[in-house]
Amino acid sequence: MTFLVDMGNDGSGKPVPIDLEELLATRLLVQGNSGSGKSHLLRRLLERSAGQVQQVIVDPEGDFTTLSDAYGHIVIEAVDHSEREIIRFGTRIREHRASVVLNLEGLEAEAQMRCAAAFLMALFDAPRDHWYPALVVVDEAQLFAPAAAGEVAEDARRASLSAMTNLMCRGRKRGLAGVIATQRLAKLAKNVAAEASNFLMGRTFLDIDMARAADLLGMERRQAEAIRDLQRGTFLALGPAVSRRPLSVTIGAVETSARSSSPKLTPLPQAQEGVRDLLFAPAADEAPPLPPPPAPKPSSDDVLWAITRPTGETAPELDLPPPPGDAEADPIMAEALRTIVADADSAFQSASVLFQDFQVRCRMLGLARPPLDLSGFQRRLACARAGIVDPAGEGYTDAIALARDLPDDMLGAYLLVARAAREGAPTPPDERIAQTYGTHSLGRVKRLLAYIEERELFVTRVDMAGKRSITLPRLGWTTAPA
């Protein structure tokens, strides 16, 4: 099915459409300096294609949240949710084909990159049965796919760049059509920009950006000056979904508007006598009245309901039993941990994935909200992998306290050895320690044991027969030679 999106008019007044089906297969790059009309262009595209295709918008400034009222997009306020919830939203969005706006406003640059990376990877990793076509619009793409390292942490930059690369390079087979907008091509990673086959180039002034834009449009260098002279809201278009030759298009009107707008000149107030006295007046002794309390923010369950509910249906009121106390919760959590550890594949899965599995298992056993965060879960999981179900009741409190500075992923291997030492059992073989540590590499196990020994938690001895024993010197526990 072909659907043409009317984007505006060319120089002679003829309409310039974008073939939506072709766009889904060939992706789009929009470039232009601040104020050139990029957001207006994206809004026109989203408004005119609403109802024809699923739309997912990564919005760093909150400009597109107004689509919610007019077109029913679900707004996800990233500042109100954890990374784990954002991943869950991404999975549900693909399943239920909901059009959403991920509002990253209020987050620092590094947090925006981490959140966008988690969200895009959740869309990308959806099951094959949910690979429905979707426009994935990323505004200010240079923030999420920078051409060079900046002030943010390297792991955040790599995660975000990897997610953007997957979207533009491999997303087509999964139904994801990337539409990215950037202020400067020079700031956008080349392997991300190069995967787009359609281009809409707006006004830009720097020579390096004009040269790259002209190169993408197939124009000669001497023709690049035309890009500097473009009016606001006018773009040069090229690509299989728009035109086979560079074509000037003036973007048409839109029905919604951003919450922010360009600054306008407004008259200054009339001169007042005594303004100096007002500015330098001492503060009042009494405290100002407190503002009214803010409206409650939607929970992750509310957002998931909005994504999955049928049109027009309201959320049911559930008569849930009161949550169990700690005494009742511990056996339920212990049983959930046992089932996770019994799965051999769980040793090689990430903690965040296992934490979601743990929560689901607890709910199936009658515990709606387990009283553990991700960090607490990792430490309880480490104990379970070492065969310690109740650390306090089994006398491992001191051992865990000594290991408080160890990374969470090392705690399981440490406790496995500690348990053998406390019971006087033979030293666990490297293969068993590797499984607890979540690796197949025996070399990593040797480095792990050396790291723990450097922290003075272990002392390793090898006798003349080549048998190894490990002592926990501060506790006086020693494994039998093996």
UniProtKB/TrEMBL annotation:
Q: Which Pfam families match?
A: DUF87
Signal peptide per UniProt: none
- Point out the coiled-coil segments of this chain: none
- The Helicase HerA central domain extends over 10-76
PANTHER family, alphabetized: HELICASE MJ1565-RELATED (PTHR42957)
**What is the designated name of this protein?**
Helicase HerA central domain-containing protein
Please give the organism: Sphingomonas japonica
